[in-house]
Amino acid sequence: MFESAEIGHKLDKETYRQAVPGLRSALLDAQYDLKENGKIPVIVLVSGQDGAGKGETINILYEWMDPRYLSTLAFSEPTDEERDRPVMWRYWRALPPKGRTGIFAGSWYSDSIRQRIEDSLSLTDLDARIDQINRFEAMLVNEGALVLKFWFHLTKDAQKKRLKALEKDPRTAWRVTPWSWERLKSYDKLQEVAGHILRMTNTAWAPWIIVEGSDDRYRSLTAGSVLLDALKQRLATGDTQDTPVAPLVHTQIDGRNVLAALDLKKKLSDKDYDEQLGHWQGRLSELARDPRFKQRSLICAFEGADAAGKGGAIRRIAGALDARQYQIVPVAAPTEEERAQPYLWRFWRHVPRHGRVAIFDRTWYGRVLVERVEGFCSERDWLRAYSEINDFEHELAEAGAIVVKFWLQVSQEEQLKRFKEREKIEFKRFKITEEDWRNREKWDAYQQAVCDLVDRTSTSTAPWTLVESNDKNFARIKILQTVCERLEAELAGKPAAKSKKRKAADGK
Known about the structure:
Elements: H1 13-37, E1 42-48, H2 54-64, E2 70-74, H3 80-83, H4 89-93, E3 101-105, H5 110-117, H6 123-142, E4 146-153, H7 156-168, H8 178-185, H9 187-200, E5 208-212, H10 216-237, H11 270-288, E6 297-304, H12 310-318, E7 326-330, H13 336-339, H14 345-348, E8 357-361, H15 370-374, H16 379-398, E9 401-409, H17 412-424, H18 434-440, H19 443-457, E10 464-468, H20 472-491
Parallel strand pairs: 1-3, 1-4, 2-3, 4-5, 6-8, 6-9, 7-8, 9-10
Helix pairs in contact: 1-10, 2-10, 6-16, 11-20, 12-20
């Protein structure tokens, strides 16, 4: 892949001098058009060999463009806080909002390259990570981002020559360290690893641009011109490079589904409820203080029909935990800040570190529920969301998070009863809105959307628990018991499917 970047590209001073003013002017115009458009985030990855001009390229872009609408993110070894979360957490937090450009000095490729060179990552694991990166970049593009990936290349001799030149000049000597010379020894290994990664991630939606880095003028003008052309083309067309998405196929020809199969008559007496509540809250408190939990985290995701009892169930979980240990995240319509990012961004920012609990009251499943049913996003967007959500939850699990997902189901009759009760009780009237009544009219559409999400996103690492919620006593105990048994199984190193049989499931 590097042949065209090893032929000695050069640009004379006069050609460069004449080209720069026009390029700078055009880049500024495109940058302001991007801001005015307000729909496209630009992500520029700057990677390559030491001494190939990565830092100089970033500096020249800041000189040529308006720095108010640029941000540079540099990534090195992850901090303790970052190690306590999924690998991609720190990159999600750094994504630029729509209308701005984010330049990544080091990126989601850096750790994989380093670990493979050090032989701490097998080729099989590397390929699995590459597949994850490809899906992540496809999601960014489908969300409207323009992703440009630059690899600045030098031959081994050119790299050695450049390091010597930098070291000789007092103004740049500080940039050459013993580590730089040590890295030169691994040049061949880097070429092998980088060649493999670049080949596997050189996709139609996020291709690599390989630039020879030996000549400063050629490198700078090439990077600026590529960025300008990509901006102009994207602003002119407004089109995203959508990956194909297959339509849903429904096979429930007998009319039955996972929700219709629930027995909503299950109940628990007040006496049994009081006994079991104390038992399971005590058990949850013990598990949250278990030394093994310090290397894990717990994410409870609550979805359900309106008035199904999510708030009451969440309070019973929170009542068993130290207030310093958990965070309840209520999810409503996205804010302006959140709308300027991919839809999963606002959930990534609340991912808990090890030893902590995050409880989501409504979740990332809004994309395939309310946004799908109400038409707040296109069919293409919610269809691709299933796989993106599965990727998200897989990354959480890989980082040690225990993801427990609940759908609380009530009958239409029970929901109507609760709606009317809320209207009568003064301190509960805030819970009932015109939107709740409007959603009842789309009951069937929401039920179908729930069945689809269960079929498509109930995985071995993050299974759905469907909760019969006509009786609040039964629902709350089933939820607490599910959380405890899942925690016990995970801390003991057992898969979720091997949790003990739930005693509350029979309603006794």
